[in-house]
Known about the structure:
Largest sheet: 5 strands, parallel
Radius of gyration: 20 Å
Strand content: 5-15%
Order of helices and strands: HEHEHEHEHEHEHEEHEH
Distance between the termini: 19 Å
CATH architecture of the largest domain: 3-Layer(aba) Sandwich
Number of helices: 9
Number of strands: 9
Structural class: alpha/beta
CATH superfamily of the largest domain: Aspartate/ornithine carbamoyltransferase
Shape: globular
Bound molecules: N-carbamoyl-L-aspartate
CATH class of the largest domain: Alpha Beta
Helix content: 25-40%
Amino acid sequence: MPTPSPNPHLPFGDQRTAPWYGRDIISVKQFGREDLEYIFAVAHEMHDMVDHIGTFDLLKGKILANLFYEPSTRTSSSFTAAMERLGGSVIPINEVKYSSVSKGESLPDTVRTLECYTDVIVIRHPEVGSAAIAAKAARKPVINAGDGIGEHPTQALLDAFTIKEELGHIDGLTVTLLGDLKHGRTVHSLARLLSLYKVRLNYVAPDILRMPAELIDELKAKKVEQAEYTTLDQALPETDVLYVTRVQKERFTDEAVFESVKGAYVIDPKVMKAAKERMIVMHPLPRVGEISPEFDDDPRAAYFRQMEYGLYVRMALLAMVLGKA
Ligand code: NCD
């Protein structure tokens, strides 16, 4: 939405002065360290509330539009669960082929339609910049749930929250991002977000899937320590967080090129012998072979716990943009 302006018709009880009230969440560039501390504190509280009472009425009567132009399991269902845990409800539009999008409706028109019926819109779309376009068209808050190979800010927030909850702090850590760093929107957002902390970032990728040079330059200007590798062995022993990603098949135009890199790295108990005893392995999921299920029982395997942290972070974000946190 453009600039949040106080609306005299808002229902009583909305905290129009809350810092995130009415705001869009499009890029991690919107967040500073203080924002993160605040989100983590609210997410922590959400965790306690879910543990103690399960579902509560903070967003009773509020409606979320979950608009997904690309496949999703975790992001869409965790936003649904987050809204329902807070007493709100959801209009899910996952199969855009059954909506007016298939009749050629533009994204701004679809968004303008949905905001007539809802209070907040979560959108995933294959094009970079689509969430910003949606936000420009909408008066209600828009949350980017992935815009092509661009950004995935809510994933990065839940990733940072996972690191904080699991390891107690973020400053001073060495974080190794592994896999498809060219097309992976989660790693683009996460690297940017982690640049708010004093971290060392290692990028491990096949040559054709390296972290985009512009992003490396952006972080270099912020004096972030960064190093690139094509194999994991050098980076693994010093790693506190190993963030594994899937090679993003849907972003390749040439199947043969995808085949040539798809099995580039596999994390298994044998590989992990070289890693620290106290560190974590994360993955935004879905995994398609890059982490062996044999590693799942290792206490360092944090990827399933990471999904749960996502629920609390998304509860926090919904409460914030709807003026209830
Ligand atoms: C990621 C995504 O969609 O970018 N998934 C997710 O949201 N948890 C990662 C991926 O699809 O590889």
